[in-house]
């Protein structure tokens, strides 16, 4: 699988990575054996980028990755984690002493002395404008606790503020055929600055797989049940912020666009990979089969202009008005 560079840090990631939120919590139950099998299938399919966070299963996702990599010293995988969401979400918590404590915990969970990439995990908006915050992150690099740092954001405005910081290596943002706003300003700014872009929620929480109907019921501990209207965290993280019934109808249209030999999920991933400025896309997987199918999108031929035009038209007609004003 092709790899792309996070320009400022000179690190590399496969164009399709693996998001591991579901290996920790909030997507229904995934047992330890299955979680390790997912990591193995992804790695064997050419994935060299794992994205996790200290809050996923309160550290379980990080620990699972550490367990897997300890058995595969032959692999070179860039592991990115995130920090900040285990604390109360106020700007005053984003200080060096807390960063060190959070970093110590993640390094223990991951079994490493230095983390490849650490990201602020969708912090309060004022954090992106704080010189002290980014000075503290520079200190983590100077102390060799982390090799590089980035941010995970909710909005395009937050992304642009972060990209303007000279040492930010990456911006993680929701980008998929139901969330196109980052294409206009965020991706061009990132390309010009040499900042990597990690595209998350690439399947709109599974909507773009085309498997769900209006009658689909998700488990009680699945965020697609308990955060559908933003009850627990930002609504944009669940179904990309699209109303579920609208999303199901639009997803059915999207699924019909998949060419022969390509699933709707692979169509969505291939669409993201083709957007100039994207470094890697991080679909989750709850089974080895899903991990392999996602990785296969990284080896597919580019989509044609006609398909790209129809995908854009679908977004403009069905989704744009629901999401662009908020994120």
**Termini separation (Å)?**
31 Å
**Residue share in helices?**
25-40%
Strand order of the largest sheet: 3-4-5-6-7-8-9-10
Q: Uncertain segments of ≥5 residues (pLDDT<50)? A: none
Protein described:
This protein is of the alpha/beta class and 327 residues long. Helices cover 37% and strands 12% of the residues. The protein is built from twelve helices and ten strands. An eight-stranded parallel beta sheet has the order 3-4-5-6-7-8-9-10. Helix 1 (32-44) crosses helix 2 (60-70), helix 5 packs parallel to helix 6 (186-193) and helix 8 (244-255) runs antiparallel to helix 11. The two termini are 31 Å apart. The model has no long low-confidence stretch (mean pLDDT 96).
Overview in brief:
With 327 residues, this protein is α/β, with parallel strands linked by helices. It is 37% helix and 12% strand.
Supply the key terms.
alpha/beta
Write the layout of secondary structure elements.
Layout: E1 3-6, E2 11-14, E3 18-19, H1 32-44, E4 49-51, H2 60-70, E5 78-83, H3 96-110, E6 117-121, H4 131-142, E7 149-152, H5 156-163, E8 170-174, H6 186-193, E9 196-200, H7 223-226, H8 244-255, H9 264-273, E10 280-281, H10 288-296, H11 305-318, H12 320-323
Parallel strand pairs: 3-4, 4-5, 5-6, 6-7, 7-8, 8-9, 9-10
Antiparallel strand pairs: 1-2
Helix pairs in contact: 1-2, 1-10, 2-3, 5-6, 8-11
